[in-house]
Design brief:
Blueprint: H1 4-11, H2 14-26, H3 31-68, H4 74-119, H5 123-130, H6 137-177, E1 179-184, E2 187-192, H7 194-214, H8 217-240, H9 242-247, H10 251-303, H11 309-326, H12 328-354, E3 362-364, E4 369-376, E5 382-390, E6 395-399, H13 405-413, E7 419-425, E8 431-434, H14 445-450, H15 460-469, H16 485-488, H17 491-505, E9 509-513, H18 521-534, E10 539-543, E11 553-559, E12 562-566
Parallel strand pairs: 3-7, 6-10, 6-11, 8-9, 9-10
Antiparallel strand pairs: 1-2, 4-5, 4-7, 11-12
Helix pairs in contact: 3-4, 3-6, 3-11, 4-6, 6-11, 6-12, 7-10, 7-11, 7-12, 8-10, 8-12, 10-11, 15-17
């Protein structure tokens, strides 16, 4: 069943979505600096256009000087040129510096916002559950936000400069082009400023032809971004799971899979290249004709003596600038296509985060309790139905594979939203959940043991003792060492590290989901004994298939629709 909120968001106009994506930054805590930078950049862009007008006037006077052989003004004119170019360079460099500063501040704010939305409110796992086919959120945050900020500012300011240039050079061209007089249908016609109208007609035709030729660029660019991201992500997974792949002799299979992913890049690239060639050929011809066209149109007035050489050169420059302004869409079509592909990916990602299933509604109580409880898969297939119960002591949860043990574990943790009924848990700070697959950050071993806390308020010796109790004494000397622990340690050692974390944190409730499954029976019994002795005040709820598992209570999920609590 389609999510109505998602459909509503998709029905919004694209530019409204862009505005929704852009607006928050300009009203955020960064707004004073952001607006100051933006207004400064806008002012400098205006100055750049004014300098271009000065250069256009200088260019006219210089060619008139040459035509009239006024050589006594030659060197003063060159000195004026140096001043104009020096001013242009200073203004252009200042504009570039302030624009880059604004761009990185905007990217920093957007990155922080997206990371907070993605990693906050337990959305990370819920997003993966709700949108399993959503490709590479990491790439959308790291690359698409960068490209969005870069391209939005570049095109926005470019358009602003184009509009300013349009007004300035339209006045020049209007004054220089004179009137076009001709007889048609028995009437005398006079078109004032005819070069302006020629530039407009030329640009409108070019814009229409560009859209017809290159409209496929937008979906092709979107697909290219997706294919590239899928390829990078697969290579990253191959690197992370190198040992498992090697042990399964899976190199050839991974090579084939990687080649298939790259073939998508190849085929889309071929289509994209063909489309860009068509666009490039048209755009190149269009711009080259625009360079010579004003000379052809203005040459009769030069030959008649109505224009001097300098006036004709300025007319050609004015025509090109006006035509360029009206042809902004033609020249920027490829950039617009790239920008729209990037923006679509960000809008899609934001829409997904906004329309996630609600966070699990977990109440607070002294013990884990549930009543009138129904548990489902993401596709709303039944796992458990109409259950009620309470865990008051250390408990072992058993059941066949697929009976819902891990899903119940995730519900207790508050990350599984697909359930109904009432569920209550002890306070979050009193609970610690250890999943089947341990995650160890690339950090110092000390930071691994206290993760996710940023600081440890205990003694260094507590960490050393925890490693010894977890039968990892050789790592005690590496507490300040940074390593890729996830790759370096074996499965059993990873689970022992997680046990050491439990000993360091000393939670009131400890939930283990097959968290000691990699240990041999003897080591398993020994580690359980360590937990019992060191965490005697902790109530342990363990999901396991181990025959040696014992606890004060046993919760058996013996079917997908029945749960029994044996005290």
């Amino acid at each position: 069943m389609s999510n109505p909120n998602l459909l509503a968001l998709r029905d919004k106009r694209f530019m409204h979505q862009v505005w929704t994506l852009t607006k928050p930054f300009w009203g955020s805590s960064e707004k004073r600096v952001a607006w100051a930078l933006l207004l400064s950049v806008v002012a400098l862009n205006y100055l750049i256009v004014e300098v271009a007008v000065l250069y256009s006037n200088w260019n006219r006077d210089f060619f008139n000087l040459m035509q009239n052989e006024e050589w006594h003004n030659f060197w003063p004119m060159l000195a004026t040129f140096v001043v104009i170019m020096g001013g242009y360079t200073i203004v252009d460099l200042a504009e570039e510096y302030l624009r880059r500063t604004l761009r990185i501040r905007w990217r920093r704010w957007l990155t922080h916002t997206y990371l907070s939305n993605w990693l906050g409110g337990q959305r990370l796992y819920r997003h993966q559950l709700a949108y399993p086919s959503s490709d590479n959120p990491d790439q959308r945050i790291s690359q698409d936000i960068r490209d969005f900020c870069d391209q939005t500012l570049s095109m926005g300011l470019g358009l602003l400069r184009t509009i300013t240039s349009l007004f300035s050079f339209t006045i020049i061209l209007w004054n220089l082009s004179g009137s076009l007089e001709f007889e048609f249908a028995g009437n005398q016609w006079v078109i004032p400023g005819y070069m302006v109208w020629v530039a407009i007609v030329y640009s409108v035709i070019g814009t229409w032809l560009t859209h017809k030729i290159a409209k496929r660029l937008i979906p092709l660019n979107f697909e290219q971004e997706k294919s590239e991201a899928d390829f990078r992500f697969h290579l990253m997974r191959v690197r992370e799971h190198a040992e498992s792949i090697a042990l399964q002799r899976g190199e050839e299979a991974e090579n084939l899979r990687t080649q298939q992913l790259f073939s998508k890049i190849w085929h889309n690239w071929q289509h994209l290249t063909g489309m860009k060639l068509k666009y490039g050929a048209f755009n190149s011809g269009y711009n080259e004709i625009a360079r010579i066209f004003p000379y052809l149109v203005a040459s009769p007035r030069l030959m008649s003596g109505a224009l001097q050489l300098g006036d004709m050169m300025q007319t050609a420059t004015g025509f090109y600038r006006v035509q360029e302004a009206f042809s902004w869409f033609v020249d920027s079509y490829e950039s617009v296509a790239d920008w729209k592909a990037v923006t679509d990916r960000l809008i899609t990602f934001e829409t997904q985060l906004e329309t996630l299933p609600d966070q699990s509604d977990i109440g607070v109580s002294d013990n884990p309790t549930w009543s009138n409880f129904n548990l489902y898969t993401p596709s709303y297939k039944d796992l458990l139905k109409h259950q009620s119960g309470e865990i008051t002591a250390s408990t072992v949860i058993k059941g066949k594979s697929g009976s819902g043990k891990t899903t119940l574990f995730r519900t207790f943790a508050g990350v599984w939203p697909y359930h109904t009924g009432q569920v209550s848990m002890p306070a979050q700070d009193d609970c610690m959940f250890v999943p089947q697959k341990p995650y160890l950050p690339n950090a110092t071993l000390k930071q691994v043991l206290i993760y996710p806390k940023p600081e440890f308020d205990g003694a260094h010796q507590e960490l050393v003792e925890a490693l010894h109790l977890a039968e990892l004494p050789e790592l005690a000397a590496e507490l300040d060492s940074v390593s890729n622990w996830q790759q370096r340690l074996s499965g059993g050692e990873l689970q022992k590290i997680m046990l050491a974390k439990c000993l360091v944190n000393k939670p009131k409730w400890l939930f283990l989901d097959e968290s000691l499954s990699a240990l041999d029976p003897e080591s398993y019994v020994q580690m359980k004994q360590v937990i019992a002795e060191q965490l005697h005040a902790t109530r342990v709820v363990e999901i396991t298939h181990k025959e040696q598992a014992t606890a004060q209570s046993e919760l058996v999920l013996n079917s997908k629709v029945q749960a029994i609590l044996n005290a």
